[in-house]
Design goal:
Blueprint (H helix, E strand, L loop, with lengths): L9 H22 L6 H7 L4 H7 L3 H26 L3 H16 L6 H8 L1 H28 L9 H14 L13 H16 L2 H11 L6
Helix pairs in contact: 1-2, 1-4, 4-7, 5-7, 5-9, 6-7, 7-8
C-alpha cells in the first residue's frame, strides 16, 4: 500500500518561510545577528531544528531572506512617506520619524555583523544604499531647490554622496562607540545638521517650525 505524499502549495510554503523570517528578524534586532543560532530560531518558533532546516539550509540563507524582506518593506514605506510629504523638508522630517521607529531597540552590532560575517547580505544592503537611497537623496535635493527651500548653488552629486556616507558612519564603532552613542541619535543629529547646511533662509524657517524652535530675530 502506497502512502500518499502531501505537498504543500506555494502559498503555505511562503507563509511558513515568512513566519521563520519574522522570528529571525525579532531575534536579530534584539540580540544582534552573530549571537543568534539556528537553535535559537527554532526554539523561538517552538519548532524542531530538523523542521527549520527543511525550509532553510543554513543561517546565511535566513539572514539573506531577512535582508531582502526588510529592504522590500523599507522601499514600500519610503515611497508612501515621500508621496505624502508636502515639501522636501517635510520629507526629511517624515524620514526622521521613520528612522526613530526603525532603530528603536535595534542591536548596535547589526551592521558590524552583516559586514564581517554575511557578505551576500551585506552586498544587498550596499546595492540598496548605493542605488535606491542615493537616488532618493538626489531627488529630494532637487525638489528642495525647485521649491526654494534649498540653496540654488548646491553640488547635488557631491552632497548626496556625503549624506549617504553619514548613514554608515553612525554604525562605525571606531567613530561612535555603541556604548556611548546610540546610532539613532547620531543619524538624527547628522540629518538635521545636513538639512540646515543646504537650506535657504525660507528653508531654515520651515526647519525650525518642524523642530518647534522659535526663529531668532
Amino acid at each position: 500500500m502506497k502512502v500518499a505524499v502531501v505537498s504543500l502549495g506555494p502559498e503555505v510554503t511562503m507563509e511558513i518561510k515568512n513566519r521563520i523570517l519574522l522570528a529571525a528578524t525579532e531575534l536579530f534586532t534584539r540580540n544582534g545577528i552573530r549571537s543568534v543560532s539556528m537553535d535559537d530560531i527554532a526554539t523561538h518558533l517552538s519548532m524542531s531544528k530538523k523542521t527549520l532546516y527543511k525550509w532553510f539550509d543554513n543561517k546565511d540563507q535566513i539572514v539573506e531572506g531577512v535582508m531582502r524582506q526588510h529592504l522590500n518593506q523599507t522601499q514600500g514605506e519610503c515611497e508612501v512617506l515621500i508621496g505624502k510629504a508636502p515639501s522636501a523638508i517635510g520629507e526629511w522630517f517624515g524620514m526622521l520619524d521613520w528612522i526613530r521607529s526603525q532603530f528603536a531597540g535595534i542591536h548596535p552590532s547589526i551592521f558590524h555583523d552583516l559586514k564581517k560575517y554575511y557578505p551576500a547580505s551585506w552586498q544587498l544592503w550596499l546595492e540598496h544604499k548605493n542605488h535606491y537611497i542615493l537616488a532618493q537623496i538626489i531627488t529630494n535635493l532637487r525638489r528642495g531647490m525647485s521649491e526654494g527651500l534649498y540653496r540654488a548653488d548646491l553640488d547635488v552629486e557631491v552632497l548626496a554622496r556625503l549624506r549617504l556616507s553619514q548613514i554608515e558612519l553612525a554604525f562605525n564603532e571606531n567613530v561612535f562607540p555603541p556604548q556611548t552613542f546610540d546610532p539613532q541619535r547620531v543619524i538624527v543629529t547628522a540629518q538635521e545638521h545636513f538639512m540646515l547646511g543646504v537650506a535657504t533662509l525660507e528653508g531654515h524657517r520651515l526647519i525650525n517650525k518642524f523642530r518647534q524652535v522659535t526663529d531668532e530675530v
